[in-house]
Amino acid sequence: MNALPLLLIGLAMFAGGYVLYSRFLGNRVYKLDASFRTPAHELQDGVDYVPTNKFVLWGHHFTSVAGAAPIVGPAVAVIWGWLPAFLWVTLGTVFFAGMHDLGALWASARNKGRSIGTLSGRYIGGRGANLFLVVIFLLLLMVVAAFAVVIKNLLISTPSAVIPAWGAVAVALLVGQAVYRYRMSLGLVTVIGVGALYGLILLGDAVPVELPDPILGMSPATFWIIALFVYAGVASLLPVWVLLQPRDYINGVQLFVGLGILFTSVLLSAPTIVAPAFNDAVPAGTPSLVPLLFVTIACGAISGFHGMVSSGTSSKQLDKETDARFVGYFGAVGEGLLALGAIIAAVAGYRTLADWEAVYSAFGQGGVAAFVEGGGAILNSGLGLPVSLSSTVLATMAILFAATTMDTGVRLLRFVVQEAGEVAKVRIGNVAGTLITLAVGAGLTFSQGAGGEGGLRIWPLFGTSNQLLASLTLSIVAVMLIRKRRNPAPALIPLAVVFVMSFWAAVVQLGDFYEAGDWLLLIIDLVIIVAALWVAFEAVVAMRRASREPPEALDADVTEKGELTK
């Protein structure tokens, strides 16, 4: 079998989901209202609250939520066979991720741009909110630390990606000035910006940059990690329109072009899928397909991290409430497309089954390396691109996805630190919150060595904690829908599936950590399990209470004190 049917069926399902299901959600469930005054207008401050063109905001949202996870997860999960991964990515994107991302964006916009953590206090209860913050903090910490390591590894293994990866920052700064200060046409700026990025890719392929060892008394690995944390800290403090927003937008367009190139190569070459649909000969030590598939592929099917981006930055930039459908649901579709590309690259980018099995010799193998290697082979056979240039294109894509998620993650983690300060009645400013965030993130990353080995120390918990957070976010959306007497089933069904699978996986991992004697991960996993159970109980109570209360007004808003008004 060749990969062409996978690509065409996947594209058709994503298109149908956006055209049909997202319209149903927007019109019948969330009832998006173009006349509603969004937080971007009501609280406009030129820093975080900035009314934004929906295409620019989509670029920010898409690249912030995507990161490296929709590449890593699917490219690891194909060890069970390509069919389970394909079904979870396509069905999960259409019925789970789109509902979740659009719902989190709508919920936050209807509550003055407040984060999901804060909303949990209003809709579920104060006790649940504090535990919610713990899960959110741990999840963001995992993302920031792990993505620094992923980017560092790519910059070292693919030196041709160094110039385009860092050059993208300069391009983004110029794009921001062109659009916001000089009011240039967005279309013209987009063409020039994307052209500049691909020019940098050609330059990077011609002039690879390998750092000397040592550099400034540090190894290249240490240097790159420190540089990434400094960059992310500065980016998180700047007004969103200066760097974060234009960087994410122009990267989003460039990355979609990259996906288009990959999919075109599949159409032209129709590469053969060498991996089995169901792998009955998984390597020893590989965990069971159920429930681990549903947490191995988080981003690319449904991801709690998306709810934090939707409610942390995107909701504060929403120009019209009706834009939420394009930004939220189509942002999830964009990530599904990336996950689909990762699956195809990982199962059809190798010449023989033996070559594929050599890569997938143990659970956890594959990932970004399989995406770059397999995708590069497809680009070479489909479009005739040189192998080195193909690898540069795909490595740059992975770096830019991960980098945009990392700088957004630092900003979100700062928000969480500030919210925790409010709980403790301690005011934490933006600079202080950022310094705390960087100290904790860098501390974890370097906790096991100067090469950043600690950055992946707690990453095994990402999938379960991320999916549990997604189910808890959906519980907030469900409570809001019940209060407004709207159909909560589109939220409750994915909530139930994701919670059961992720909780099951967390319990399985608890046993694995105990057998391995990994007490740190065991304790953190136990904290996450207890927090999830507690919040789930509070959520059920909140839903029952909401069903008995008088219906909330359709145009209800929330005051700064959290009180309902009309």
TrEMBL record:
GO terms for cellular component: plasma membrane. Residues 2-347, 364-505 form the CstA N-terminal domain. It is found in: Cell membrane. It is a multi-pass membrane protein. It comes from the Bacteria. Keywords: Cell membrane, Membrane, Transmembrane, Transmembrane helix. Pfam families: CstA (PF02554). The chain crosses the membrane at residues 6-26, 62-80, 86-107, 128-151, 163-180, 187-209, 221-244, 256-278, 284-305, 326-350, 383-405, 426-446, 458-482, 489-507, 519-541. One of its GO terms (biological process) is cellular response to starvation. InterPro entries: CstA, CstA_N. Its main location: membrane. Belongs to the peptide transporter carbon starvation (CstA) (TC 2.A.114) family. PANTHER family: INNER MEMBRANE PEPTIDE TRANSPORTER, PEPTIDE TRANSPORTER CSTA. This is Carbon starvation protein. The lineage of its organism: Bacteria, Bacillati, Actinomycetota, Actinomycetes, Kitasatosporales.
